[in-house]
Structure formats: structure tokens, C-alpha cells
Specification:
About 60% of the residues lie in helices and about 20% in strands. With about 70 residues, the protein is α+β, with helices and mostly antiparallel strands. It is globular.
């Protein structure tokens, strides 16, 4: 089941729907970087190019989890 969270990006309200497991990893990344969840989503948004925001969030979470295992 997807869990939706809302954030304001570039002055526009938007929602991101992800599986709870991805939100848990993103919360850990935000904590590690000293960011709020909104701050992390803004950083992801700024770097994602044309990739959908939810996909960019999942890719970051997977890359981070993979790096943690190495």
C-alpha cells in the first residue's frame, strides 16, 4: 500500500506516493544529512531532471541502501 505525503516544491503543493519502506529509508537519509523530510524532497526535486519525483525518491533510497550494504 502506498503512503502519500505532501510538500511544497518551488511554491507548488505536490504529493508523493511511496511504499512505507521507501519512506523509512528516505527518513534515515534526511536524518543523516540533517534535513527535514521536506528539505530532502526539495533536494531530490532539484536534481531529478525529467525523472518523475516518486521514481527519483525510490532511486535515491535504493542507491543509499545499496551503499549501506557495501
Amino acid at each position: 500500500m502506498l503512503k502519500k505525503r505532501s510538500v511544497s516544491l518551488a511554491g507548488h503543493a505536490t504529493s508523493v506516493a511511496l511504499e512505507p519502506e521507501f519512506w523509512a529509508v528516505l527518513d534515515r537519509i534526511a536524518d543523516e544529512r540533517g534535513l527535514s523530510q521536506a528539505g530532502l524532497l526539495k533536494a531530490i526535486d532539484a536534481d531529478r531532471g525529467r525523472t518523475p519525483l516518486a521514481s527519483a525518491c525510490r532511486l535515491l533510497a535504493l542507491a543509499w541502501a545499496s551503499a549501506e550494504r557495501d
